[in-house]
Amino acid sequence: MSEQKLKPCPFCGSDASMETGIVQGLQRSMISCTRCPVLMSPHRDKEQLVKAWNERAGEQDE
């Protein structure tokens, strides 16, 4: 998987950060805003997680 860059938070425009850890005994990743309380639920597939975070209504796929 090629590393995809995270877009800024869709609500406040601040940087986003990805963390990986163990959730209920399984390795999961989640993305959160570094400023406001927005976060994407833990997911096992980092590529799908990044794609969901970077998706914006009204934007065309890059």
Number of strands: 2
Range of helix content: 10-25%
Please summarize the sheet with the most strands: 2 strands, antiparallel
Question: What is the overall pLDDT average?
Answer: 91
Query: What's the number of helices?
Result: 1
Q: Gap between N and C termini, in Å? A: 17 Å
Unreliable residue stretches: none
What order do the strands of the largest sheet run in, or round the barrel if closed? 1-2
Q: Element order, helices and strands?
A: EEH
Shape: globular
* Computed CA radius of gyration, to the nearest angstrom: 12 Å
Pairing-aware structural class of the strands and helices? Answer: alpha+beta
DSSP strand (E) fraction? Answer: 25-35%
Account of the 3D structure:
The chain is of the alpha+beta class and 62 residues long. It is built from 1 helix and 2 strands. The chain has one helix at residues 46-54, and strands at 16-23, 26-33. The chain has a two-stranded antiparallel ribbon. Strand 1 (16-23) and strand 2 form a beta hairpin. The mean pLDDT is 91.
What is the fold's blueprint, element by element?
Layout: E1 16-23, E2 26-33, H1 46-54
Antiparallel strand pairs: 1-2
What would a concise description of this structure say?
The chain is α+β, with helices and mostly antiparallel strands. The chain has one helix and two strands, in the order ββα. It is globular.
